[in-house]
Amino acid sequence: MHRASFYVVSALLDSFPGAIQEENTKCQMPLHLACQMGTSMDVIQLLLDKWLEANENRNNDSVESLRRLAYGNTKILLFHVSSLFHEEQNTPSPSEILSFFINGKWWNGALVVVNRYPAVTKTLDLNTTVMADFLSTIGKSCSLTTMSCVIQNEPDLLEGV
Q1: Whole domain around residue 46: which residue ranges?
Q2: Nearest CA among 48, 98, 39 for reference residue 73
Q3: Which residues 6+ apart lie within 8 Å of 108 measured at CB?
């Protein structure tokens, strides 16, 4: 797994989407193995995207089970993901998590933050000219409630309507 290219893993997941939830004899899924083996960040992010599609994985305990296996940048990434599902005073703010994901070019992770904390989009200070593309992406990837909150937080968009 640690030598598998992004394109190979992507093709496998496209051909067999259920593979992300398959377990080996030690009850480990592909993402668990990738975390243990120091797989490249782009493959980790791809596997994490697919893994987080399952609602049962969107909780602190599930993410922490991965984080315990990981090291280096993967462990830091999983700390930020875990923080989304575990609200304590010593965890990063949604704005900090969003910034971390954007800096790491994990766009689906950024969308998870926006879906969970729609008001965080105000901190992006997006120019009105890019807002249509941004809202299109939000509309395709997030809930209707999130879309509504994002629009409400951007009064400039509704000016003159």
Answers
A1: 1-91
A2: 39
A3: 45, 49, 52, 141
Beta carbons of 114 and 138 less than 8 angstroms apart: yes
Buried b (16+ CB within 10 A) or exposed e, 88-115: eeebeebbebbbbbeebebeebbbbbbb
Please give the tally of structural domains in the chain: 2
- In this prediction, residue 8 carries a pLDDT of 93
C-alpha span between 19 and 22 (Å, rounded)? 5
Task: Give the chain's count of helices (H) and strands (E).
Answer: 10, 0
85 with 6, same domain: the answer is yes
- For helices 72-85 and 60-67, the axis angle rounded to 10 degrees is 170
pTM: 0.83
pLDDT tens-digit readout, 59-73: 999 999 999 999 999
Tell me 123's DSSP state.
Answer: G
Last residue of one domain, picked from the residues 76, 91, 106 = 91
Q: What is the per-residue pLDDT for 158?
A: 62
Mean pLDDT score of the chain: 88
Report the length, in residues, of the chain.
161
CB 78 within 8 A of CB 67: yes
